[in-house]
Give the backbone structure.
Amino acid sequence: MSAAFQAIEQRPGYAPYKSAAGFPPRHADADVLAPLHRHAVTVTAERNEEIFAEGTPAKYCYLVVSGCVRTVKLMEDGRRQIGEFLLPGDLFAWEALDTHDFSAEAVTRVTLRRVPRALLEDFADRDRDFGRRLRELTARQLRAARERMMLLARKTASEKIASFLLEMERRVYTDGRGLLDLPMGRTDVADHLGLTIETVCRGLTELRRHGTIAVDRTRIAIRNRHALGSSECSMVH
Amino acid sequence: MSAAFQAIEQRPGYAPYKSAAGFPPRHADADVLAPLHRHAVTVTAERNEEIFAEGTPAKYCYLVVSGCVRTVKLMEDGRRQIGEFLLPGDLFAWEALDTHDFSAEAVTRVTLRRVPRALLEDFADRDRDFGRRLRELTARQLRAARERMMLLARKTASEKIASFLLEMERRVYTDGRGLLDLPMGRTDVADHLGLTIETVCRGLTELRRHGTIAVDRTRIAIRNRHALGSSECSMVH
DNA sequence: CGATAGGTTGACTTCAATCAAACGACGTGG
DNA sequence: CCACGTCGTTTGATTGAAGTCAACCTATCG
């Protein structure tokens, strides 16, 4: 089974969770921050290190340069919800309220560009084009949030997993032929999809048995995109 | 049981789902639109009438004047998800993308103020203060969306219902003493919380048996706010 | 090596969904 | 004014999908 994956690391372009072209990453969100680059500071965080905590004053916002970040909300009894995974090119924590309503943690070792939020506000005030891009970014975030609500509220475990794999295939750097390397562990996936780790495992196993995907630890090969996608898409145009 | 509710309609200030002071409603979102009032057109929709459909071009955005609106997303097999309920003072469909990613329907007969979205964009470009308020509105929307994801993914049926009642008590016009009149039916509540109608009923019944609330069709009296709120709040400050 | 952390599988339980029936409020027409 | 049908809600019986508990497996690393 793992034969399919053996060659991955040797390929010329292979650089997991890293921007193909170094910095800045070529991605939608990245250019939003472009005018602010001179004021950005590069920071790093180790695997599982907290970047900021829920409820603390929101001084900065961040652009992911390399690695993967998770946004986390907790309930007092320990129930955990991962709002989203942030990948190279993604901007986060730029929302204009005083405190963070979630914490951010490094899934892998990450490099970030950090910008004071106040500066973002200033730019949005002054630069018409910047403000417009920021609003568009917002709109996409809201749209994604609504899509996720549908997923969390109405999709079955298998459908959630299928949707997740397709999303990751779209967002993670891949060879373009359905071979992807997940930066996060099963527990994180579970907490992102509103499932338990066991259910995620079983879901992956079932997809593997049906020949829809191949699994080797963090690496997933999508064999039958149609089977994954059939439970996808909530639009009725 | 319904003795507690009998007097409601006779009270001087009672006007369900209507702004207390007529138009414009006094509410956070309302003043965002204030500069646009002269360009707004008043429109109405009957109970269950569609205001706009998912996937159609997004020409206008709306401010609720009276009544209640639901935002709906559908899957091909009929699974339904209500994103949010919009009440007097709430602004919706203002996101800056070309098509609607959800449909909007009147829960009750509604009155709306309709504004061309392009105008909103123009204003945001020109008026610094307006842009800022728009961004703040965004931030609150995103925050609410994240809170809802936690609810959908991690709360039990009873907790979902409790959270919902508290949210509605906060948002719907009430006498301030825990007496509220829900504009939407049980089916809508279920589709908002990712449950079935039966589970919503059972949840309400259980809360009633525990003396936490009193129920009479659409009217709910909150008897023990602490019992409702104990499963509330996801923050660990 | 042995220890550890993360992942997988199995047995069993539980919470919410499903299927089914009855109830109550409301509006219409006899 | 009352019988009747409809719609929304409530309750009960049963099923089923995902959670829980527990054991085992497999990399990785000191």
Summary: Residues 10 and 52 of chain B are 36 Å apart (CA to CA). Chain B touches chain A through 46 residues (CB under 8 Å).
